[in-house]
Amino acid sequence: MAGLRHWPRWATPLTWLIGLLPLGSALWRLGEAVNPVELLTRSTGTWALTGLLLTLTITPLRQLSGWPALWHLRRPLGLLAFAYGLIHLLIYLLLDQQLDWAEIGRDVFKRPFITAGMAGFVLLLPLAITSTDGWMRRLKRRWGLLHRLVYPAAMLAVLHDLWLVKKDLTEPLIYAAALALLLGWRLWRRWHSAFHWHSPERK
Fold first, then answer.
1. Considering the chain, what is the average pLDDT of its residues?
2. Helical axes 150-164 vs 112-129, angle rounded to 10°
């Protein structure tokens, strides 16, 4: 299938620019917000989760479209998700808890959505650090294995969102369904490849 085979140089900076627009929008609305900390917390959390799901969308999109160059979108999208997650965490630590480590420790152990969010961020940390070409070359096949941590990280992010909301679960359930679909696609592809490989027609 003819299509996007070479990644244009301008596409990565454009991805970053578009990806940072939600942060700019949240900062722009801070002056009008009743609770600016909550606005920033919700906005950065939502876009961290959205960024993770968009990152996981690239593989099925590439497989369906036959456009290999889409692979280049994974890194900026993943790093944007990490950046939003980092800001989300810093807002919680600095503005919400004001670096009260005893209170933060109690939160981590007593509130499941905080535990899930923290664990998800910890899993994303090595992925962000090793996202460079140099780390890819250094780790070789282990790089791919390490970056499978994105799957449990995305599951924990969805749980964090699901357990955080107390009333209307519509949005968290949409995120959960999207993640289930993306993971289900990968499982189906793996099963299909294995079945096709062992089918009698190939022997």
1. 91
2. 150
